[in-house]
């Protein structure tokens, strides 16, 4: 079996942020914007994922996440290997299917 599929994977972020006040909404928008600028893709509301190819990248993005959390927010992140990600079940109703979120192609630099 290919070991690379166990090292590469997705950092999945789940969050609950308050949106009751104007300041809460501003912090929510900024948090979401930061995720998107850092390469995360929206899987569904309050669930975002980003491809990570090494343990160092996972730790880097976890540190960034920690620094972005609003004071009253709750954020969890979980690493899922590429094998596990490929085995997820996706169910949806009659609306259009969700976008395909697959591991990006790796570039070879020399």
From TrEMBL:
Top-level taxon: Bacteria
Positions with a binding annotation for Mg(2+): 16
Pfam families according to UniProt: CRISPR_Cas2 (PF09827)
Keyword Metal-binding annotated: yes
Gene Ontology BP, a term: defense response to virus
Record has Plastid as a keyword: no
Entry-linked InterPro entries: CRISPR_associated_Cas2, Virulence_VapD/CRISPR_Cas2
Assigned keywords, A-Z: Antiviral defense, Endonuclease, Hydrolase, Magnesium, Metal-binding, Nuclease
Broadest EC class assigned to this enzyme: hydrolase
Cofactor(s) needed by this chain: Mg(2+)
Enzyme Commission code(s) on record: 3.1.-.-
GO-annotated molecular function: hydrolase activity; metal ion binding; RNA endonuclease activity
Family affiliation: Belongs to the CRISPR-associated endoribonuclease Cas2 protein family.
Task of the protein: CRISPR (clustered regularly interspaced short palindromic repeat), is an adaptive immune system that provides protection against mobile genetic elements (viruses, transposable elements and conjugative plasmids). CRISPR clusters contain sequences complementary to antecedent mobile elements and target invading nucleic acids. CRISPR clusters are transcribed and processed into CRISPR RNA (crRNA). Functions as a ssRNA-specific endoribonuclease. Involved in the integration of spacer DNA into the CRISPR cassette.
Quaternary structure, from the entry: Homodimer, forms a heterotetramer with a Cas1 homodimer.
Protein known as: CRISPR-associated endoribonuclease Cas2
Organism: Akkermansia glycaniphila
Organism lineage string: Bacteria, Pseudomonadati, Verrucomicrobiota, Verrucomicrobiia, Verrucomicrobiales
């Amino acid at each position: 079996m290919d070991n690379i599929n166990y090292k590469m994977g997705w950092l999945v972020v789940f969050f609950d942020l308050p949106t009751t006040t104007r300041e809460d909404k501003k912090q929510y928008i900024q948090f979401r914007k930061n995720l998107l600028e850092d390469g995360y893709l929206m899987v569904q509301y309050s669930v975002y994922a980003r491809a990570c190819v090494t343990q160092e990248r996972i730790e880097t993005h976890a540190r960034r996440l920690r620094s972005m959390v609003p004071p009253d927010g709750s954020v969890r992140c979980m690493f899922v290997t590429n094998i596990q990600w490929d085995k997820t079940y996706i169910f949806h109703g009659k609306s259009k299917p969700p976008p395909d979120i697959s591991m990006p192609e790796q570039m070879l630099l020399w």
